[in-house]
Each structure stands twice: as C-alpha cells, then as structure tokens.
C-alpha cells in the first residue's frame, strides 16, 4: 500500500537530500527533486535557503567581471549580496538560477577588509 507524505515530511526529506549535495551539483539535484516530488514550488522554496548555505559552506566559485569570486560566509553582506574584494563592489546572487545582478560600488575602510 502506497502512502503519500504530507508537505512537512516532504520538505524535511528535500532539505536532508539538498544538504548532502556535492559541490557543483546543487542545481541538478534541485531539478531532479522537482521531477521526483512533483511539487516544484516546495522544492524551490526549500532549495532557496539551503542553496545559500550550501554555496557559502563550499566556497562556491562564480565568474563575475572576467574573474572568479568565492561565495563565502566572509563576503556575505546579507540579503543575497556578496562583496567582491578585488573590484570593491557588491552584487546580488540568485542561488537557484546562478545569476548575478545589481552591482554596487562598495566602499571599504582599511581596517574593515582583508587584502586577499
């Protein structure tokens, strides 16, 4: 006899699987889970939060302005904004779509930022 899981149980399982995703595989796992669970809205909702934590914990590299910036807890400005220490600007990052946007100059006091 097949018994369907309730939404909180599905969400818990989705989060558990997403937390175990190897670096670089997150987007593919989200697509696969959406197909398996057949509830894309629930998967995307859970993946939005887990994706941000996953990318920062794994020091995920992204290309922006022809060079690589790591997404980390150290350059996280909150609200999905990250600091690029090389060019001294901040940008938004969509963890599900892997899109950067809304760049802004970001002034840094000499004692605020590390020279990387």
UniProtKB/TrEMBL annotation:
Query: May I have one GO cellular component term?
Result: cortical cytoskeleton
For the keyword Nucleotidyltransferase, the answer is: no
InterPro entries recorded: CapZ_alpha, CapZ_alpha/beta, CapZ_alpha_1
Q: Which domain of life is it from?
A: Eukaryota
- Whether Cell cycle counts among this entry's keywords is no
- Give the UniProt keywords, A-Z: Actin capping, Actin-binding
Alphabetically, the GO molecular function entries are:
actin filament binding
Q: Which family does it belong to?
A: Belongs to the F-actin-capping protein alpha subunit family.
> What's its job?
F-actin-capping proteins bind in a Ca(2+)-independent manner to the fast growing ends of actin filaments (barbed end) thereby blocking the exchange of subunits at these ends. Unlike other capping proteins (such as gelsolin and severin), these proteins do not sever actin filaments.
The record describes its quaternary structure and partners as: Heterodimer of an alpha and a beta subunit.
Its name, as the record gives it, is F-actin-capping protein subunit alpha
Q: Whose protein is this, by species?
A: Amazona aestiva (Blue-fronted Amazon parrot)
């Amino acid at each position: 006899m097949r018994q369907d899981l309730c939404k909180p149980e599905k969400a818990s399982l989705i989060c558990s699987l997403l937390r175990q995703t190897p670096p670089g595989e997150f987007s593919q796992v989200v697509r696969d889970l959406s197909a398996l669970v057949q509830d894309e809205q629930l998967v995307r909702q859970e993946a939005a939060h887990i994706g941000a934590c996953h990318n920062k914990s794994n020091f995920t590299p992204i290309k922006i302005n022809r060079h690589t910036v790591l997404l980390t807890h150290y350059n996280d400005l909150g609200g999905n904004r990250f600091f690029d220490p090389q060019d001294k600007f901040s940008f938004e990052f969509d963890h599900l779509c892997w899109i950067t946007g809304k760049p802004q100059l970001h002034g840094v006091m000499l004692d605020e930022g590390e020279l990387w």
